[in-house]
Amino acid sequence: MRLANRRYLLILGCSLLILLIVIAALLAFRNQPKVPGKNSLSQHVDTFSGETVSNPKGVAPEKYGVSPNTPVYLGFDKLLNYGLTDIQLNLVKLAFYKYSQSLAKPLGQISVGANTITTQHDPTNPNSNFNILFKVQFDEKAIYQANVEYAGLNDARLIITTQSGNKEYDSGTLDSN
Description:
Layout: H1 2-30, E1 41-45, E2 52-56, E3 72-74, H2 86-102, E4 109-112, E5 118-120, E6 130-138, E7 142-150, E8 155-161, E9 167-170, E10 174-175
């Protein structure tokens, strides 16, 4: 009888140990982070700017300290390589924001065509402004020509024209001072 009790207790103990291991494994597997690309992250490459846009499901866009109707600015950091300062880049974004707010339906995304950026300046004329010209796409649809003009390190002026050359918007000179 004692031998049967020992076998019973041994089988019961082994069964409980196996059950605990299975439960621990299931809990550990359940708490692992999700692998990107497995329905947890929606992303695409903006063909105009070449930047990857991520939009995780169930996560609201980061809008802390920013107006909720501010567009997403793609490719704007490339303008820093052509002479703009951080201050001027913020002024350019502000000008695009003001333009967006002037429309019946504000823009959701503004993309700079990184391979379309050129500069103009006449070094023989001391009164000549610096110009950065580039194509910009609004909401992955309409493409316009943008011209950022500046004379100092703390000012910028944005001029947006249609593909046919008609002036769409002029911000006037914006100054950070």
